[in-house]
Specification:
Elements lengths: L2 E5 L2 E4 L4 E8 L7 E7 L6 E7 L4 E3 L8 E6 L4 E6 L8 E8 L11 E2 L3 E6 L1
Parallel strand pairs: 2-11
Antiparallel strand pairs: 1-3, 3-8, 4-5, 4-9, 5-6, 7-8, 9-10, 9-11
Length: 122
């Protein structure tokens, strides 16, 4: 079974940092892209960043540029999202998802993790 286990969320003050992890299993990691998405209450799910096993990455969210960095450890089948200079508007549940290619549209991704809550206080 495909599994995506997201972790690393928490409560942090504005300006702080968090590193999210997504451990993937049940599929050939090299053949897919992993994307990070987020969803705040009452808002649509939006793409943050995505990465392929070859290291090619895409930024899907303008406000994440320069603050968030996606990376992967292929030996551990794990994708990370380093988030720096966090702002209250970054508060959301963050999900990792598996897809055939990097895309903004969440429907492109076929499997999703359970999400991890990020709360940024002002």
């Amino acid at each position: 079974d495909v599994q995506l286990q997201a972790s690393g969320g928490g409560l942090v003050q504005a300006g702080g940092s968090l590193r999210l992890s997504c451990v993937a299993s049940g599929f050939k990691f090299d053949d897919y892209v992993i994307g990070w998405f987020r969803q705040a209450p009452g808002k649509e799910r939006e793409g943050v960043q995505c990465i392929s096993s070859t290291g090619g990455s895409g930024n899907l969210l303008q406000s994440a540029k320069g603050r968030f960095t996606i990376s992967s450890d292929n030996e551990k089948n794990t994708v990370y999202l380093q988030m720096n200079n966090l702002k209250p508007e970054d508060s959301a549940v963050y999900y990792c998802a598996k897809g055939p290619f990097c895309a903004h549209y969440h429907g492109t991704y076929t499997d999703w993790g359970q999400g991890t809550q990020v709360t940024v206080s002002s």
